[in-house]
Design brief:
By secondary structure, this protein is α+β, with helices and mostly antiparallel strands. It contains twelve helices and 18 strands. The protein has helices spanning about 1-30, 35-85, 90-100, 160-165, 185-195, 260-300, 315-325, 345-350, 355-370, 395-410, 445-455, 470-490, and strands spanning about 105, 115, 125-130, 140, 150, 155-160, 165-170, 175, 200, 205-210, 215-220, 225-245, 250-260, 335-340, 375-380, 385-390, 420-425, 465-470. The longest helix has about 50 residues, at about 35-85.
């Protein structure tokens, strides 16, 4: 019954130990975890959303501009239709309509053109568009000479990207679309019109001259040449129809006036915004990388021994546990060593703590240089070092540690140093099927404590030596512990005899 109670208590203690161990492991993971990628992902998603919304805004903006201008033009064309309905079909009516200065034609129900003013550049097939919520569908025709405005699903679409691609800039001529052909005959024509319009003052003036779909602003003039020509607007044609009271249809050319300079500036604005976004992106990425670097520095500082500048005991426990628990390392044999610099305190007393720490650094660096890949060393406390060594044969391990101690004894030419090592061997174990068993529950701190216990055999000795942890040592320590626990009770019960 007593044995069962002891086993139950021991099992509870093991559970508590495992729970504390899991908490420590989680703490280490939190310290090492870096969530910088989350910031980058969130920023990229936000950037994507902003980009999509930005493109949608530009499309909606230009569609609104085109449709609002087309609606204004449509109202003018409706006025022309009212004039026709009021005065009827006749030369006087056409004369009034022609004064609008707009290309148009009138067709009958069969689609035959019965009257035309100006050039007819409308496509033969029309589509219904809805210019605003209050208007019924309007039959619209795109122009055969330009593709900047198209019709899709009852809406006008402005191909502003195509227009922006065709916008060019000249130091003398400003922004322009297409070819900037201004030959001598055209200059003479402009000069004649300047003279006719009389809208210039002396050697300079500002006149607007319309040439096809382009409105040219003449900012400077002299008798022989035009020094600066700037295209102010481009008129994008669109043909809109209105049903007449006599059953015929009026189809007139609507001109959607787009200010080239505004579009160019809008394009520049988009470039600036894009540049700002890119700059912000690099700033954010830079901050994230900086945060990652700072996180690494903090982690390194947390796991750095301040005396030797190597790794500290916390890192040794974490890294050592990872190495020992890995499945691929289950077949490997390891040894945890407690290496002690004997009489370290005496050396510091006779010299200085700084010189003592210099010797610890030399010891650390020399041992670290002798280690193989996946072997570890750390400075634990004062004169103590913890080592995790890999070995294949016990004799080979013993020779290696002896050689290491021999080299450390010669680390200073003026002093004869001694080093003691407690060794706890961690053998590989196999299951019944012959496969190596993973060390999933190994506790580095416990294994190192066993190595320290083995090294305690040299208590009171100042000579170098190696001691190994084994079952016999465990039994001895249990006996000593039991005697310590029982001795007071024995004294109280007068179970000791005095000689």
């Amino acid at each position: 019954m007593a044995e069962e109670i002891k086993e139950e208590i021991k099992e509870k203690e093991n559970k508590k130990t495992k729970k504390k161990k899991r908490k420590k492991e989680k703490s280490f993971k939190k310290i090492k975890r870096n969530r910088s990628w989350v910031s980058i992902l969130v920023f990229l998603i936000a950037l994507l959303i902003i980009g999509v919304l930005g493109v949608a805004f530009v499309d909606v903006f230009f569609q609104y501009v085109v449709e609002s201008k087309a609606t204004a033009e449509y109202n003018t064309i409706k006025y022309m239709a009212r004039v026709y309905d009021t005065y009827g079909d006749g030369e006087e009516t056409y004369s009034l309509l022609n004064k609008e200065g707009r290309d148009y034609f009138i067709k009958d129900k069969a689609g035959n053109i019965i009257y035309q003013n100006g050039e007819n550049t409308a496509n033969k097939e029309g589509e219904v568009v809805y210019l605003d919520d209050e208007l019924k569908g309007v039959t619209a025709y795109t122009d055969i000479d330009t593709s900047y405005i198209t019709i899709s699903d009852g809406s006008l679409e402005f191909k502003y990207k195509d227009l922006i691609k065709n916008i060019e800039y000249d130091e003398d001529e400003g922004f322009y679309v297409g070819d900037k052909v201004i030959d001598n005959d055209k200059i003479k024509e402009y000069n004649d019109k300047l003279g006719e319009l009389d809208k210039y003052d002396g050697d300079s003036g500002s006149v607007v001259y319309e040439n096809g779909n382009v409105r040219v602003n003449i900012d400077y003039y002299d008798e022989n040449e035009i020094s600066l020509i700037e295209i102010v607007t481009t008129d994008i044609p669109l043909w809109l129809s209105v049903d007449l009271s006599d059953g015929n249809t009026l189809v007139a050319k609507a001109t959607v006036k787009i200010n080239i300079k505004d579009i160019a500036l809008f394009g520049i604005l988009m470039i600036v915004v894009s540049a700002v976004v890119i700059i912000v992106f690099f700033i954010v990425v830079g901050n994230v990388i900086g945060g990652f670097i700072r996180q690494r520095r903090i982690t390194n500082f947390f796991f750095t021994d301040q005396v030797t500048k190597g790794r500290n005991w916390m890192w040794f426990k974490e890294k050592g546990g990872q190495l020992l628990k890995k499945k691929r390392n289950a077949k490997n044999k390891y040894a945890i060593v407690n290496l002690v610099f004997v009489k370290y305190r005496t050396f510091c007393l006779c010299h200085s703590i700084e010189e003592g720490e210099e010797k610890l650094c030399k010891i650390h660096d020399q041992v670290a240089a002798s280690l193989e890949k996946k072997e570890l060393i750390t400075h634990t406390t004062n004169s103590n070092f913890a080592l995790l060594l890999k070995y294949t044969d016990a004799d080979e391990l013993d020779e290696r540690i002896k050689k290491l101690i021999g080299e450390l004894e010669q680390i200073d030419t003026e002093h004869k140093f001694a080093f003691q090592a407690g060794v706890n061997k961690i053998d590989a174990s196999k299951a019944s099927d012959g496969r190596y068993v993973k060390r999933k529950d190994i506790d580095v701190e416990k294994e190192y404590n066993n190595a320290c216990t083995a090294r305690a055999k040299f208590e009171g000795s100042e000579d170098s030596g190696i001691a190994y942890f084994d079952d016999k040592l465990v039994e001895e320590q249990k006996w000593i512990d039991m005697v310590s626990e029982k001795q007071q009770q024995a004294l109280d019960n007068e179970e000791f005899m005095v000689y």
